[in-house]
Design a protein that fits this description.
10% strand; 634 residues; 4-stranded mixed beta sheet
């Protein structure tokens, strides 16, 4: 039996740090925002998206197909996406949305790809997850950036034609901390032999091409393209979850699996860097589905709350319900604006969008969850009832409880909220660590510390005064934004305040700041609100079709957002963080064990984390084989 690797916090951090893309070659709106500089010129005027009639035509066909052929309720009921849906999507080219045209794909921009995912997710979130895992983290995306021409020619046409791919990083003992990775790729004649067990691979039960992360001894974590049918691979289980019941998610065992040398992606030891870089744009796909869920929630909330009468009025006319509706409308507008902006910035490739993509993943996954929760409240008992049960009683069905369940995972996978807070905070303080990091590094010698001191002196002498004044203090600042100008003035002033607060936190806690996760989380959440406020104002100004409505929604969002920002600032310094950490020590020490009495004792059978046994599988292969799609199938 393999024991979990003994990895210290320091080693885990070192692995994460090495996987980071250290250099900044292009400007970053997000990075500047955290440094107290509102670089509106990077996002205003609203960047024009490249016209793509072919993509618009694809979206129209996709919508028609989803309406006619994809039965989300059936997928939920049977916990299975039918084979014919795989084939229908393949016929449309949906498995190749992000694959370049020269390899048989549609070569969609990020904007059109995300629009497609919004549509697909609104028909069936499980189908959305299938296509997003396939293209945003599966084989196409890492090969696009890091693949050799031979790899692209060998694999991309197969994937564009409808073969499914999956991304396998997680293991029983490896979740947020890849430093513990246990799957090994031992060098052998002509390639590598893989041994290990991978957990929770989305598409893992149906995929024929896998990206597998494994440790090459002496070289580090490496990404491989692996044929799903290779001898020695067993799909041991299909996992079941709170939501996304149609998800084809596996436990996959690798026993002596040969992978040819030429299937290494991007070089030995580059696996995590590839995963992180892939996620720079890959992270846009989850928000796309959150946007879909929020739009759907808005529509249901509007129709229902206008019609449902209680206490002499439609429920929408009760203030408590009206506030929820306004939150859903404003948040949906902000989520969509911020995502579209990120997509357009990613597509025109002039900006580094790693912070922005991470911010929208964080913001959309957290707020879509709140939106769905508010919808359930507005729907009352019907919000808690399944759609099938509503229909069986003869009412119009709305699957609010399913939407909530399906959305929940977005706060956990592709970087949990806690990890996103740390990741974004790390990028936000990068400029400080670059100039002054050695001062607080216990391993830096006197010479390095002295040089850092000089560097920091020069940097802060210029930077700190720049935080004192700005356009946000001028009564006419951002006048070109008309009635939204006060909000941009607020964003400008607040970004400087955010930078000052971050600097104050760094001076106060120095190296200990990295353990102040609640403080860092609030800093990042303020940044996310400021980014979303900037996006809505810039979009509303550029809006042609719904100009007045856009202005109203942007104003509404900014007013709501400002209250959240103020609460977050207040909590930076007035909070129960230390008290909570102390209390948790006492909880773990058993002091409050009496609180757990009075219930039926829980089973304590089995380990919380299973240790995997190397060797061949001892259970049957439960792989689901989708019959290959041929053009004649439709
Ligand atoms: C439905 C589903 C689909 C998935 N699809 C895939 C897939 O396709 N491929 C794949 O490789 N993986 C996949 N995963 C795995 C997913 O990415 C992980 O669940 C996720 O990374 C979190 O890891 P974990 O569950 O082991 O939680 P843990 O890492 O054990 O974390 C537990 C809790 O501690 C917090 N935490 C952990 N470390 C820190 C820290 N340093 N600071 C603060 N808080 C911390 C976490 O945020 C979380 O709240 C999937 C999971 C699910 C449930």
């Amino acid at each position: 039996m393999t024991e979990p690797a003994d990895v210290t916090e320091k080693q885990a951090r070192k692995v994460a740090e090495e996987a980071r893309q250290a250099e900044w070659r292009k400007p970053s709106f997000g990075k500047e925002l955290f440094l107290g500089r509102l670089r509106l010129d990077l996002i205003d005027p609203w960047p024009a998206a490249e016209p793509r009639p072919d993509a618009e035509e694809f979206l129209a066909k996709l919508e028609a197909y989803l309406v006619a052929e994809v039965d989300g309720a059936r997928i939920e009921r049977e916990a299975r996406i039918p084979d014919e849906v795989f084939h229908g999507l393949a016929a449309l080219g949906a498995f190749g949305m992000k694959i370049d045209r020269e390899y048989g794909g549609l070569g969609l921009s990020n904007l059109h790809y995300c629009r497609a995912l919004t549509l697909i997710g609104s028909a069936s979130p499980a189908v959305g997850a299938l296509l997003s895992a396939h293209q945003s983290i599966g084989v196409p995306q890492p090969l696009k950036t890091f693949g050799t021409p031979e790899q692209k020619r060998a694999f991309l046409p197969r994937l564009a034609a409808g073969e499914v791919s999956a991304f396998l990083l997680t293991e029983p003992d490896v979740g947020s901390d890849p430093a513990r990775l246990g799957t090994v790729a031992e060098p052998v004649e002509g390639g590598y032999r893989l041994d290990g067990v991978k957990l929770w691979a989305t598409n893992g039960t149906v995929a024929t091409l896998l990206v597998v992360m494994a440790r090459v001894p002496g070289k580090g974590i490496t990404a491989f393209v692996v044929e799903g049918d290779s001898p020695g691979i067993t799909v041991e289980r299909r996992n079941e979850f709170l939501g996304l019941r149609g998800l084809e998610n596996s436990v996959t065992r690798f026993h002596d699996v040969f992978v040819p040398q030429e299937n290494v992606i991007g070089g030995l030891g580059k696996g995590l860097k590839i995963a992180l870089t892939t996620l720079n744009t890959g992270r846009l796909s989850l928000p796309a589905m959150c946007v879909g869920a929020s739009k759907w929630s808005l529509a249901v909330a509007r129709e229902w709350s206008a019609e449902r009468v209680q206490w002499g009025r439609p429920v929408s006319q009760h203030e408590a319900v009206a506030k929820k509706m306004a939150f859903i409308a404003a948040t949906t507008y902000a989520m969509e604006s911020t995502l579209d902006l990120c997509c357009i910035l990613a597509d025109d490739d002039r900006n580094d969008i790693r912070i922005e993509a991470a911010l929208i993943k964080l913001f959309a996954s957290e707020t879509a969850w709140l939106v769905a929760d508010e919808l359930i409240q507005i729907r009352g008992g019907r919000g808690y009832e399944t759609a099938a049960s509503q229909a069986a009683r003869g009412e119009r069905a709305a699957e609010a409880e399913q939407v909530l369940r399906d959305l929940r995972i977005n706060r956990i996978f592709e970087g949990s909220t806690e990890i996103m807070h740390l990741l974004i905070a790390r990028e936000a303080v990068d400029a400080h660590l670059t100039v002054a990091g050695d001062i607080i590094d216990p391993e830096a010698g006197v010479g390095r510390k002295a040089r850092a001191g000089a560097r920091a002196g020069a940097f802060y002498a210029r930077w700190l005064p720049s935080l004192a004044v700005g356009r946000g203090q001028m009564p006419n600042g951002y006048a070109e934004f008309g009635p939204l100008a006060p909000h941009l003035r607020y964003v400008e002033r607040t970004s400087r305040k955010l930078a000052r607060s971050t600097f104050y936190g760094m001076s106060r806690w120095q190296g200990g700041l990295e353990h102040k996760q609640a403080f860092l989380g609030r800093i990042v959440d303020i940044g996310a609100e400021l980014f979303a406020m900037s996006a809505v104002c810039v979009r509303a100004r550029a809006e042609r079709e719904h100009r007045a409505a856009g202005h109203e929604l942007a104003d509404l969002f900014c007013q709501q957002s400002r209250l959240r920002v103020e609460a977050l600032f207040a909590a930076l310094w007035e909070n129960t963080d230390s008290l909570d950490v102390e209390a948790t020590r006492r909880v773990l020490g058993g002091r409050y064990a009496f609180l757990e009495q009075g219930i039926i004792p829980r089973s304590t059978e089995g380990a919380w984390v299973s240790a995997w046994q190397p060797g061949p599988a001892t259970v049957e292969d439960v792989r689901r084989r989708i019959p290959p799609f041929t053009a004649g199938d439709r």
